[in-house]
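Lab notebook page, bench 4
Experiment: in silico fold of construct C2
Operator: M.H.
Input chain length: 331 residues
Purpose: comparison with the prior construct
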Amino acid sequence: MKCATVVLVLLAGLASAQQFIDPFNYAPGTLIPGYTEQRGNWVATGTTVQSQSGVTFQELTHDTFLDRDACVETVAIYDTTLPGLMYTGPIVRHNGAGAAATYFMVKLQDNGVPRDGWDTYWVYYYNGASFQFLVAGSNGAITPPSLGVRARLQVIEEAANVRVQVFLDTNLDGNWDITREFLTALGFGTAAGKIGVNGYQNAIADDLKYFNANLYLAGTPQVGMPVNLNGRGTSGFGYVGACSLGHSGIPLGDGRVIPLDLDALLLLSLSTPAIFTNFSGTVDANGNFVMTLNTPPVPQLAGFTIWSSAVTFTPNGIIEIAPDVQITFVP
């Protein structure tokens, strides 16, 4: 029954939705269609966007999307032609304009000599006047330094705080090498805001992605033990989740992509509720859903990685798409 539901949802998946993938393939110049330069004079290079050399704090926001529970990622590219102090990364929940705006951000930064790439990351809430650490130590080192890092920022409003998650792929091999989670009162209760990228000096950003549903691991995926995947979507929508061995993407034919692979594990996850429990249902009144992965007691699974995602849907088709969640089993 679940497989049949998924097939119908995929076939009907041409409904309007807000998952967004932008490779920044705009004509070279200072015009970046669909975006607002909050600070700085951003430039399209033809394949990327670049913040302005000689200018410090800069933001570029997308004009369309407003979200409170947001997941955004981009690729930070180090400008080797003019090495120096620079940073870039995703921003979410951007409210206001210019230096008085508020937002969450993660930045990849070249923080010291030698100037050889991204060597640190920093996670902040900008309160309209200054950058605030979410908690003490919401930063860290990238070793060795990297010329390209994929950075994801997921922000979820909860009952008494904001859950902020950061994922970094420091060698662009498709796997998260650094993951951090923070619970903070900063930004709690703020309204839905725009998504975009931040910049300092001549940093380069590429491949902006925005997911309008949320999904994350709520615990450690231990062999032989259940682990929950907590999701957030629109109340009353149906949802379907799945797992796969890879996450190269399943195109829906309308520009959207489900970030999984159509492989044997995906089919198994759609037909084996004893292991993949509550991988379909209805988003509750608070916008939440919980899927449980009952990991088999197979020692050989230790160190093995799979991926999970979920979609929400109505009779009109898929409406929301959650990010791909990396699940690496531990003994």
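Observations: Residues 2-11 form the longest helix (10 residues). The domain at 2-16+214-328 is CATH 2.60.40.10 (Immunoglobulin-like).
Next step: discuss at group meeting.
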